[in-house]
Design brief:
It is elongated, with a radius of gyration of 16 Å. The mean pLDDT is 90. Helices cover 83% and strands 0% of the residues. The two termini are 19 Å apart. It has six helices and no strands. The chain has helices spanning 3-10, 15-39, 41-48, 52-74, 80-103, 109-138. The chain has 142 residues and is mainly alpha-helical.
């Protein structure tokens, strides 16, 4: 993906700004998802076919992870190593989400739809962040 295309997606040609925007979007979506899992763990658990306790614990993790990603996004120049950790965590989350479909005995139809959609979304965050990080490094902005 070229810097121009990446910049148009992020609505900026500044590599650091693009990286920060992708991190910020990830933080907002992750934190919102985590908050929903914590506050509505019982009804969402029934809707998705996931245990209430598991959803609550995942929500707590997502709240903490989202806050950390938000902290990175707030930095003028997010450090490379933590950004790489976020990218790898996103890829791991996406992969484990898909693996969970094979391990669960009874996700609902909604769960069978939500889990892959969520996995693809998180993987796309990782791809966009990775490309933005690479573009920032190539431009000497890191």
């Amino acid at each position: 993906m070229s810097a121009t295309l990446l910049g148009s997606i992020a609505r900026t040609t500044a590599p650091q700004a693009a990286l920060r925007r992708f991190l910020a979007l990830d933080a907002v979506v992750t934190t919102g998802n985590g908050l929903a899992y914590v506050v509505f763990s019982a009804p969402l658990g029934r809707f998705l076919g996931v245990g209430q306790a598991a959803l609550f614990e995942l929500g707590l993790f997502l709240l903490l992870f989202g806050a950390g990603v938000g902290r990175l996004a707030s930095r003028r120049r997010p450090p490379v190593l933590p950004v790489r950790c976020v990218i790898e965590a996103n890829y791991a989350w996406a992969a484990l989400s898909l693996v969970s479909l094979l391990l669960w005995s009874a996700p609902t139809t909604a769960g069978l739809v939500w889990i892959p959609v969520q996995a693809v979304t998180v993987a796309l965050f990782g791809v966009c962040q990775q490309l933005a990080l690479r573009t920032a490094a190539e431009s000497g902005a890191q």
